[in-house]
Write a structure and sequence with these properties.
- The chain is mainly alpha-helical and 202 residues long.
- It folds into two domains: 161 residues, no CATH class; 38 residues.
- The protein contains eight helices and two strands.
- Helix 1 runs antiparallel to helix 2, helix 1 runs parallel beside helix 5 and helix 4 runs antiparallel to helix 5.
- 22% of the residues are buried.
Amino acid sequence: MTTDLVLLLLQLAGTFFVIGLFTFGGGYAMLSLIQTQVVTAHHWITESTFTDIVAISQMTPGPIGINTATYVGYDVVAGMSGSHALGILGSATATLALVLPSFLIMLLIVRFYTKFRGNSLFEGTMAWLRPAVVGLIGAAAIILIVRTTWTSAGPAFQVVEENFPDWKSWLLLGAAFAGSYWGKVSPILVILGGAVLGVLIY
C-alpha cells in the first residue's frame, strides 16, 4: 500500500468522521455536507457521479447517508488504486468513520436522556435543531437538482450545470412526486417505474 493511498484513507476517515459528528437529522440532511466535502472541497468525485451515487443509495437497503459514504469510499479508493479489494477497504473506512460519532454519542445520550428529558435547556436545543434539519434537507435537494458554485461577488451562487438535463427529466420528477404524494404509490413502484422509463427514454 503506497503512502498516497494511506493518506487518502486517513483523509476519508477524517472527513466522514467530521460529517458524522456534525450532522443532525439523518441521511438526507447529511447529503449536503457529504457533497461539499467530496465534490467541492476535495474534488474526489464529480457532481454527476455524486448524483448517481445518491440515486443508487436511495434504491439500496439501508440509510441513505451510510450507503452514500460506502459508495463514495469505494469509488474514490478504487479509482485511485485500480483495485477492487482496496475499494472495499475504502468503503469500510468511510462507513465506519461516518457511524462512529453517532455510536459514541448515543452511548452517552442513552445514559443521560431520561435524566435531562423535560429540561428547558435540552428542549430548547432540540427545538432549535428542527428548523436546521429542514434547511439541510432542502439544501440536499437543491444540490441534487443543480450544480452550483458559490461566489464572493455578484449573485450568491451561480448555476454551472443542471443534473436534470432536459424536460423529460423534469417530467419524470413531476410524475414521481405526484404518484407518491397524491397517488400514494409505493416508493418501490416509483423507483421501478423510474428505472424502466429511464431505460426506455434514454
